[in-house]
Amino acid sequence: MAAPDRDETLRATLVRGLSRRRTSLGVTVGPSAIWIVLLLVAPLAFMTAVSFASIDSVTFDIVWEPTVNNYYNLVAGGTSEYSLGPLVYKATAFEKAVLLSYAIATVATVLCLVFAFPLAYVLARLDDRMFKIVIYLVLLPFFTMYLVRAYSWRLMFGQSGVLNQVLGAVGVGPVGAFEFGILAIIVGLTHAYFPYMLITLYASLDGLDFSLIEAARDLGASRVDIVKDHIIPLTLPGIVGGCLFVFVPSVGAFITPQILGQGKVQMIGILIEQRAIGEATNAATASAASMAVVVSIVVAMFLVFRYVNLDELGGV
Amino acid sequence: MSHCDEATNDIEVSTNSKRSGTDGVSRRAYLASAGAATMFASAGCAGGGGGAPTINVITWNDFAQDPVVESVEENVDATVEITSSTSSTEMFQQMNQSGDFDVAVPNNNLVPRFLNADLIEPVNTDAVDNYGSIYQKFRDFVGQQFTQDGNAYGVPIRWGWYGYAYDTREVPDHEPSYNIMFEDDYVDTDLDGQVIMYDEAAKTMPVAALYLAASEGGSSYKEALTENDRMTFTEDQIQNMRDLLIDQKPSLEGYISSDTTFIQQFQQGNFLVGHSGRNEIVRLQENQDADWVEFVVPREGAMAWYETAVVSQASDNPEMAWEVVNEYISPATGAELARQGKSPSCNPNVADELDETEAELYGRIDPERIEQFIPFKDIDSDVQEPYNAAWEEVKA
């Protein structure tokens, strides 16, 4: 009977140990904290340090002499003129890449929201069986690899892509808009990040008390008023959460613009990749560009969280 | 690594077959024999260190193909481990950051970078006895680009040149010129959105320079390309090249860097004129039977690349590493490499190992023809920043 006694002792020791606050924190939070420190905080700290260093032009080694030149060069010295419709402006390549990335990410986010919201609403109203069938069918294409989906869009666009071939067959094409470029990237990103928006919105709408909507209707509110005054305010945390899940990765997207931009659209991810491992290798300028993007996204998120409680994201 | 894996697999096969008929074998005897076999296999793997040394090579995927690796290993007493890479810059970074590689085979324009970073050692001319057979022109290039104190630091392996290809079904015959890429009325075909450029500054900026060199008073552009071991453009010249490429951009279908993508897109009819290497077009014509493609060398001149094998200063087996390099320009292995990449060897004797069709496509080249080509070069470090910034602005 010695073995059960040993087990009991071991169990008691474990329970005693785990009941101590410090130990239980170490066991529960410790692994994820180590993970975050090693794979997020440490690389970020290193990247920050490198962004204030420089690179030897002969040996390509990091020279640890503090400088702000890498940041200065991101916004200074731009001599090229770019046009956006009637607007002509001078900017550095970095500035243009950031503006372009934010613009493309904004459009992709809005499109995801517009397409996902009605579907999420319908899903929230479906019975359990139908919900499972519909959500399975909606998410089925997303079980394939992201890269494969991006390449499948590649076949659709281009001078002789499927879209232009179809339009050509009916005597309307080829249409320049369906060549590789910004539109193709927006389509690719909207498709890629659609499920993140859908699931977040669904989680939010699923918690909605639909009797409130029926009450509003009974009291004479129009459909538009119900959406504007009830549904959107009540699901705002979900909308913000979904937008963040789409917007943030879209800003830093690399694979989609690489595949669907045909080298003509330089989003910030591509510019950083070129500086990090491309021809113009310079880890310091690449780090500075990355830091600037990280800071801009953190500022954007900070502004968002001033209006939305972090606890409410993903549900009402 | 693969040899160890194969040995282990063999052992698994033999133990499995034994297990199926082990009625008369005790479990203990079976475990003992399996243990002994595993130890034997492990000893075989570890024993590699005592036999033929392993030479680690970071290079293009063509070098990793079985016929090439087998040909080297048949003739050199070494095991060759290939790490495939898709860019010379990556090879530089890998060799700079780790001492894992004995040999790298970057393009010639990056070799000065290896040399200046003190990463590579001079060519061992005793081990590389095929060096004397390579075209005189490439030996001259080596002398100009990466020779210090009378010591050459790299061995040219294969080479090729860049011009442009066009779809003869849509684009009429014309005098080959870069004008086709920059002037919309050069041929009687609407090429708006039908031109592809290379997605690399090192390849596209020289095209702009050669085009500008042909304009009135533009000879200094060609001098900047040809007269030194690096491209020595002035900042004004870089800005002019940048402006030219920015003006060209709206009429482009795009920029492509991958050979495979170029071939696929050309076949699909996504563009009609493409800045390209000759080997892509040979591959397209040979594998896809595309007789509608014409590859031409523009009258303004063409840039040429040549892969150059270098040996790391950190190599434990430099002499054996040079023997591997020597094998890459030997007739037998050189022919395998030429077949894999559809690119001629820098050693003309390799052509003797090719059949008639192969020799016509990537065999011996008239040395006078080689004289016309300008080797790719790295940008001078004095103007590296404005040059990189200019390319970023072109792509922005």
Task: Give an overview of the whole structure.
The complex is a heterodimer of chains A (316) and B (396). Chain A is mainly alpha-helical and 316 residues long. Helices cover 70% and strands 4% of the residues of chain A. Chain A has helices at 2-19, 21-28, 30-51, 69-75, 93-125, 128-139, 146-156, 162-169, 182-206, 210-218, 223-251, 255-260, 268-277, 283-305, and strands spanning 54-55, 62-63, 80-84, 87-91. In chain A, helix 5 runs parallel beside helix 9 (182-206) and helix 7 packs across helix 9 (182-206). The longest helix of chain A is centred in the middle third of the chain and has 33 residues, at 93-125. The N and C termini of chain A lie far apart (55 Å). With 396 residues, chain B is α/β, with parallel strands linked by helices. Chain B has three domains: 2-50, no CATH class; 54-159 and 306-371, Periplasmic binding protein-like II (D-Maltodextrin-Binding Protein, domain 2), CATH 3.40.190.10; 161-304 and 378-395, Periplasmic binding protein-like II (D-Maltodextrin-Binding Protein, domain 2, 3-Layer(aba) Sandwich), CATH 3.40.190. Chain B is 45% helix and 16% strand. In chain B, the strands form two sheets. In chain B, strands 1, 2, 3, 6, 7, 8, 9, 10, 11 and 12 form a ten-stranded mixed β-sheet that branches. Chain B starts with a helix and ends with a helix. The interface between A and B is large, with 38 and 40 residues.
